Amino acid sequence: MSCKSTLEECIPLPIPEEELIDLTVKAKDWAIMHGAAMRSKTNFSPDSLNFAPFLLTPSSFPRKEYEKAVELQPIINRLMHNVAHDEEFLTTTLAETIKVDEFTGNLFNIYKKVLSNGFGQAISLGILRSDYLAHTCADNAIKQVEINTIASSFGGISIHLLPLQSFVLRELNHPEKLLSMPENRALSGICDGMIRAWQIYNNPCAIILFLIEDISYNICDQRFHEFYIREMCPHIKILRRTLTEVYKYGKLGLNKELLLGDCEVSVIYFRAGYEPGHYHSHNEWDARYMMECSTAIKCPSIHYHLAGTKKVQQALAEPGMLERFINDPEEIKAVGKIFTGLYSLEDNEVGNATYEMALKEPERFVLKPQREGGGNNVYGLDIPDALRKMTRVERSAWILMDLIKPPISRGYMIRPGGHMPPPIVDVVSELGIFGVIIGDVDNIICNYQSGHMLRTKLSTANEGGVAAGLGALDSPYLVD
């Protein structure tokens, strides 16, 4: 495939104005009525929903690269599982970062304390999402943006984008396009992982705990998981609690079981706890430590959470590092190909060379801290200023990454309160592949790829988080 900077749209654009307006109104209603929705951040009410931003028609994505990402996911699951269980690697890799990044330091302290007391539960549940952009400078081959090991979101509502956009394409008399849209089993795949972990815990009276933020804007995404589990297994009860509530009402039983009131917790599914704002005081950190000590199966366990840091991602891309975690030479080669340039900024010869390189050609790079949740990165020409404000020691909390240049496509981005009729905009898409893995240090009990999501943003926007209000939900239209 030659180096293309654009991908052809799924259908000829523009859509005639009258038809476009009529269709947009229908599609918005479809989204709200089927739960492709979120609570408004600007006009919050627990009693109402807005549709989540979405693309009216699916965005093109290279078929070969989509299939490659799907095939790679079980290998990436296993890689992250092995990384999470390698104490020496995590300790060495994060040594400089934890000196200057207080949040990662706090997580690491819990990890060390749990290690010294012995894990209450050897088994972990990993619900991961590996994010990719196609890179025009590499024949549109996928390059990994990041790997999420905590609160990997949008498995719940992204499954509605295929039927929503299928409805739109049928309305436009293009039913043949549906053949190039892959099915998406993200919700069932993720929930089946939680149900399997609940079964492994082996207490029919135990509950699943969803650890949540104080205010959940992305409520449908979380509730769909809960409602699916309740529908499939009516005997499994689910509680939603914040870190503060776990501190208040939680305690460890005689055998280290986590008790919330009268309920024993079998599985903890973290949808919070990945950023400093979720920990208001020492109490929330104490609650995290108590959960980590317990016999509940965590998603993720503290070591899995640390394995998802950007510093670990950068270390894995170093020459020869994958051999430590993967035995098969073909798998090593395949994973190595998805890595883009990742560079350390630690205060040593290598880190100082990275620093000089970033000052000279900042437009080639993205500067990334150890944070999840979107909106934390520094791009291009803003990098020199950001770096100059840091001390040499502070720099080690960040990594530098080559900027991936994805192919541009065009479409209609539908947002709450957006223009009518919506304008055609230039967009780029990021593919997320979900994976589920359950196991302990010696055994992997199950490992599979579990669906996908597509986030699409304006080609001029740096960040693309839907929950952060910058991207829109989408689904891939596969092109050769």
From TrEMBL:
<dbReference type="GO" id="GO:0043295">
    <property type="term" value="F:glutathione binding"/>
</dbReference>
<feature type="binding site">
    <location>
        <position position="379"/>
    </location>
    <ligand>
        <name>ATP</name>
    </ligand>
</feature>
<feature type="binding site">
    <location>
        <position position="146"/>
    </location>
    <ligand>
        <name>ATP</name>
    </ligand>
</feature>
<dbReference type="GO" id="GO:0005829">
    <property type="term" value="C:cytosol"/>
</dbReference>
<dbReference type="Pfam" id="PF03917">
    <property type="entry name" value="GSH_synth_ATP"/>
</dbReference>
<feature type="binding site">
    <location>
        <position position="146"/>
    </location>
    <ligand>
        <name>Mg(2+)</name>
    </ligand>
</feature>
<keyword id="KW-0479">Metal-binding</keyword>
<dbReference type="InterPro" id="IPR037013">
    <property type="entry name" value="GSH-S_sub-bd_sf"/>
</dbReference>
<protein>
    <recommendedName>
        <fullName>Glutathione synthetase</fullName>
        <ecNumber>6.3.2.3</ecNumber>
    </recommendedName>
</protein>
<feature type="binding site">
    <location>
        <begin position="401"/>
        <end position="404"/>
    </location>
    <ligand>
        <name>ATP</name>
    </ligand>
</feature>
<feature type="binding site">
    <location>
        <position position="430"/>
    </location>
    <ligand>
        <name>ATP</name>
    </ligand>
</feature>
<feature type="binding site">
    <location>
        <position position="457"/>
    </location>
    <ligand>
        <name>ATP</name>
    </ligand>
</feature>
<feature type="binding site">
    <location>
        <position position="463"/>
    </location>
    <ligand>
        <name>ATP</name>
    </ligand>
</feature>
<keyword id="KW-0317">Glutathione biosynthesis</keyword>
<feature type="domain" description="Glutathione synthase substrate-binding">
    <location>
        <begin position="206"/>
        <end position="307"/>
    </location>
</feature>
<keyword id="KW-0460">Magnesium</keyword>
<dbReference type="InterPro" id="IPR014049">
    <property type="entry name" value="Glutathione_synthase_N_euk"/>
</dbReference>
<comment type="pathway">
    <text>Sulfur metabolism; glutathione biosynthesis; glutathione from L-cysteine and L-glutamate: step 2/2.</text>
</comment>
<dbReference type="InterPro" id="IPR014709">
    <property type="entry name" value="Glutathione_synthase_C_euk"/>
</dbReference>
<dbReference type="InterPro" id="IPR005615">
    <property type="entry name" value="Glutathione_synthase"/>
</dbReference>
<dbReference type="Pfam" id="PF03199">
    <property type="entry name" value="GSH_synthase"/>
</dbReference>
<dbReference type="GO" id="GO:0005524">
    <property type="term" value="F:ATP binding"/>
</dbReference>
<feature type="binding site">
    <location>
        <position position="222"/>
    </location>
    <ligand>
        <name>substrate</name>
    </ligand>
</feature>
<dbReference type="InterPro" id="IPR014042">
    <property type="entry name" value="Glutathione_synthase_a-hlx"/>
</dbReference>
<dbReference type="GO" id="GO:0000287">
    <property type="term" value="F:magnesium ion binding"/>
</dbReference>
<keyword id="KW-0547">Nucleotide-binding</keyword>
<keyword id="KW-0436">Ligase</keyword>
<feature type="binding site">
    <location>
        <position position="148"/>
    </location>
    <ligand>
        <name>Mg(2+)</name>
    </ligand>
</feature>
<dbReference type="InterPro" id="IPR016185">
    <property type="entry name" value="PreATP-grasp_dom_sf"/>
</dbReference>
<dbReference type="GO" id="GO:0004363">
    <property type="term" value="F:glutathione synthase activity"/>
</dbReference>
<comment type="similarity">
    <text>Belongs to the eukaryotic GSH synthase family.</text>
</comment>
<feature type="binding site">
    <location>
        <position position="455"/>
    </location>
    <ligand>
        <name>substrate</name>
    </ligand>
</feature>
<feature type="binding site">
    <location>
        <begin position="368"/>
        <end position="377"/>
    </location>
    <ligand>
        <name>ATP</name>
    </ligand>
</feature>
<feature type="binding site">
    <location>
        <position position="372"/>
    </location>
    <ligand>
        <name>Mg(2+)</name>
    </ligand>
</feature>
<keyword id="KW-0067">ATP-binding</keyword>
<feature type="binding site">
    <location>
        <position position="129"/>
    </location>
    <ligand>
        <name>substrate</name>
    </ligand>
</feature>
<dbReference type="InterPro" id="IPR004887">
    <property type="entry name" value="GSH_synth_subst-bd"/>
</dbReference>
<feature type="binding site">
    <location>
        <position position="310"/>
    </location>
    <ligand>
        <name>ATP</name>
    </ligand>
</feature>
